[in-house]
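Saturday, quiet lab. Running sequence design on the structure tokens for the scaffold JK sent over.
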């Protein structure tokens, strides 16, 4: 018998079917990837295996080779399922910041699992927690065990989640999008970590992802889901080389395509930074901290020039300073030296700053968290006009909201009652279109794009990039593109700046930087994305 054998799994919510008659198996020690777009049913399938899909009506069989013999997970009592959950089958969730408890240290949360599941004493559990943290490659494990989730980087939080999941040496690890929000080098580190731990412990892994590069590198077999059905499954090499289903071929072809217009000769400078420096106060260690604070320099000596109609890609690892650079350009953090938006600098008075804010808009990484859940689409998109054009009447504002939504491909004919809907009623790609419409309605000349596609699956990301390319061609927009996705940079950027430790270590045209990188760090980033 397979370690996990799913037979005829069907899932519905309130009578609405979302997964229909799914069959797949995971062998002991095997790595199976379940792939598909957002809404395909892959995550709810994984959650249902452990009884974590709240409110779901689940039918079928999920046979698991437990220590006491084969059991059907769907027929177990809540008590018996809790005994298996976390001990024989563990799960790593997509976003560790929401999965980890912010009120307890990392070490305390791992130790709690060891005490509950393994019966260890408090002292032994803490020691074992430190050892697990060390196994996942986190430096200074004893100190990090005392840290809280917000005090760790994204990669460190994900490693802590993995340490917690592996605390009881499970037979099966379910990893739900474990690297989505991580940069390319940290993503590769997490994959290498999972791969090494999987081989060391001999466990099986069920990987839930939309990242086909990750599947190619990591998995033994792949199952492709579309609209609640598994349409194709087999060995990774076979499926990727000879996909038989049209949907699989669509996923494999959904790489960002470059369709950019070259920058016009003599184009005006839209954003210029000279010697940009951003520093934050931090406590000094020991007694010196009683008498003053030190400083952490997040951005140092950055000189950049972004022209009208140009896309400048800023690429680097987490902590390299690229998001802080974006915040300084947006005038949202204190900085030293010069940031000029066309002919105006920040801090020249309220009217000048307000004009800069109209010229310079931002699209954030996660549209679900950047859109207010309490506001309708009409209120969200039209909000900027209440600040930058308060003289407009309500009918004119509505007309402009409708036009902005149409420009990003959202119309009343497709979505009845569009203006009165709320963000949760849209998919991730549709929410990002709403976020772009919100930025465009005030007719900006520059957009800061902060990881605009990292929360989207491959086909949605491709659509959003094509939309951004079309809008740039139509309106002559300048884009400051912050991303760790090298494929997005290849598709969108005219010039590239590579950041490391708060400094620009390499800067030039896309062709020069990507085809003939001068720095080892740039070569490492490019190699990690292949």
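Result came back. Writing it out in full:
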């Amino acid at each position: 018998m397979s370690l996990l054998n799913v037979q005829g799994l069907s899932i519905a919510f309130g009578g609405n079917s979302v997964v229909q008659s799914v069959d797949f198996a995971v062998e002991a020690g095997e790595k199976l990837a379940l792939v598909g777009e957002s809404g395909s049913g892959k995550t709810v399938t994984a959650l249902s295996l452990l009884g974590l899909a709240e409110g779901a009506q689940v039918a079928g069989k999920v046979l698991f080779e437990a220590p006491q013999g084969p059991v059907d997970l769907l027929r177990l009592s809540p008590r018996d399922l809790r005994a298996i959950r976390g001990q024989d089958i563990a799960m790593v969730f997509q976003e560790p910041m929401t999965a980890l408890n912010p009120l307890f240290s990392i070490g305390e949360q791992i130790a709690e699992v060891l005490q509950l599941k393994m019966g260890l004493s408090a002292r032994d559990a803490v020691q074992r927690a430190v050892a697990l943290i060390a196994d996942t490659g986190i430096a200074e494990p004893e100190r990090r065990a005392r840290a809280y989730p917000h005090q760790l980087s994204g990669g460190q939080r994900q490693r802590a989640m993995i340490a917690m999941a592996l605390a009881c040496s499970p037979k099966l690890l379910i990893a739900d999008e474990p690297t989505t929000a991580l940069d390319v080098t940290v993503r590769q580190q997490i994959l290498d970590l999972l791969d090494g731990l999987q081989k060391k412990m001999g466990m099986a892994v069920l990987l839930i992802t939309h990242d086909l590069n990750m599947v190619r590198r990591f998995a033994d077999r792949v199952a492709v889901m579309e609209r609640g059905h598994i349409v194709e499954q087999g060995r990774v090499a076979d499926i990727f080389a000879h996909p038989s289903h049209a949907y699989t071929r669509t996923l494999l072809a959904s790489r960002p395509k470059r369709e950019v217009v070259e920058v016009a000769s003599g184009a005006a400078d839209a954003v210029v930074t000279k010697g940009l420096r951003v520093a934050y106060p931090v406590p000094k260690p020991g007694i010196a901290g009683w008498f003053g604070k030190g400083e952490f320099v997040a951005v140092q000596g950055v000189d950049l020039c972004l022209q009208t109609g140009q896309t400048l890609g800023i690429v680097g690892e987490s902590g390299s300073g690229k998001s802080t650079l974006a915040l300084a350009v947006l005038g949202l953090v204190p900085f030293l030296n010069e940031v000029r938006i066309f002919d105006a600098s920040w801090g020249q008075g309220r009217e000048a700053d307000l004009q800069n804010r109209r010229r310079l808009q931002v699209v954030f990484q996660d549209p679900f968290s950047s859109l207010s859940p309490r506001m309708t689409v009409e209120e969200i998109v039209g909000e900027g006009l209440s600040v930058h054009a308060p003289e407009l009447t309500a009918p004119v504002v509505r007309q402009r909201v409708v036009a902005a939504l149409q420009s990003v491909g959202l119309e009343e004919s497709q979505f009845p009652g569009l203006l009165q809907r709320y963000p949760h009623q849209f998919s991730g790609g549709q929410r990002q279109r709403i976020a772009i419409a919100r930025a465009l309605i005030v007719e900006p000349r520059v957009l800061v794009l902060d990881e605009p596609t990292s929360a989207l699956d491959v086909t949605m990301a491709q659509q959003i990039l094509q939309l951004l390319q079309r809008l740039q061609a139509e309106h002559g927009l300048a884009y400051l593109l912050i991303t760790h996705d090298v494929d997005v940079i290849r598709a969108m950027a005219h010039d590239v700046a590579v950041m490391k430790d708060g400094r620009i270590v390499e800067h030039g045209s896309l062709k020069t930087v990507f085809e003939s990188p001068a720095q080892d760090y740039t070569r490492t980033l490019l190699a990690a994305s292949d």
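Notes for JK: The chain has three domains: 1-88+172-252, 96-167, 259-342+445-453+472-530. The first helix runs from residue 42 to 49. Ask whether to fix the surface positions before the next round.
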